[in-house]
Design goal:
Layout lengths: L16 H9 L46 H15 L7 H20 L5 H20 L12 H21 L7 H11 L4 H8 L3 H4 L2 H15 L2 H10 L2 H7 L3 H16 L5 E4 H7 L5 H10 L4 E2 L3 E4 L28 H6 L2 H6 L7
Antiparallel strand pairs: 1-3, 2-3
Helix pairs in contact: 2-3, 2-4, 3-4, 3-5, 4-5, 6-9, 6-11, 9-10, 13-14
Amino acid sequence: MPGYELPLGTCLDMCPANERTRREKECRLHRFEVAPGCPGDRPRADPQRAVKEYSRPAAGKARPPPSQLRPPSVLLATVRYLAGEVAERTDASRAEVASFVADRLRAVRLDLALQGAGDAEAALVLEAALAVLLAVVARLEPNASHGLADPMLLQAQVQESFGSLRRCYALGAGPHPRQATFQGLFLLYNLGSVEALHEVLQLPAPLRSCPALRTALAVDSAFREGNAARLFRLLRSLPYLQSCAVQCHVGRARRGALARLARALSTPKGQPLPLSFMVHLLALDGPEEARDLCQAHGLPLDGQERVVFLRGRYREEGPPPAGTCQVLVESKLGGRTLEEVVMAEEEDEAVNRPQSPA
């Protein structure tokens, strides 16, 4: 409507009081939101723990009033709570945590879209929400049953989050100090995508020249070229959030490198190669993971220390093993909490230090 301005939200709680009451009556509180000490058959919402859940806007339904929308400052505090208090929980599976966090972050994005927040404020919220989502998705155990955490749905929500943030960048004048970092995260998450590379290359030259984006472009180039030595050298040097973004491509990159080694080294009698070389080349977490990777691709072992490249033995069945990525991802936290990584502006200073992406 011409001249109509969206109002700012006025709800100061992470979850509006009427939603807490309604979900209490309907017994739809998540266990993360229940007040301590409540009987199991009559759970009560804890206002300090309950977080607004995502509800798809219905066609023809009136917009929620400002009292049901959280302003940007509360949305940012909600993201901080999810990063610090929920994502770090040890009494729940990572799949349960990821499912809860992803749903509540989706509600954060919707609240933001339904009000007239400034571009700079909106970008801060969207950046923090995306960083938390990338981290909880990366923490899912690669070979475990994900239960409530549907990998395809989570992937779609990550892409949706990138879309919201990049539209915010495109529509607003800024400044957006972290744009280079998050444009780089977009490319790393979509490694090898022609469309993603094209979109990044359309960004202004000063933005593309930032170290964070130059490094992401270098990683994408090494991935496309199949240059495993350069690729994994770059992956070892990435900060934590960048490592979370690229983790979903690590298994495929390792399989590609192993296939090239098999083509180059396989002989009728077998060519041995130390597993220690594989660990170093592919940034594996140790000899055991190297043995598992080789055996998953049909390559025989010579004792516990060497793999044998025997002609005709290499095979690919099913998706590539994801691996644990302790070296490439988890170790990058360096004793910090996820909240510290997500909310600290200093992270970008580390990413943007001048460096050669070679």
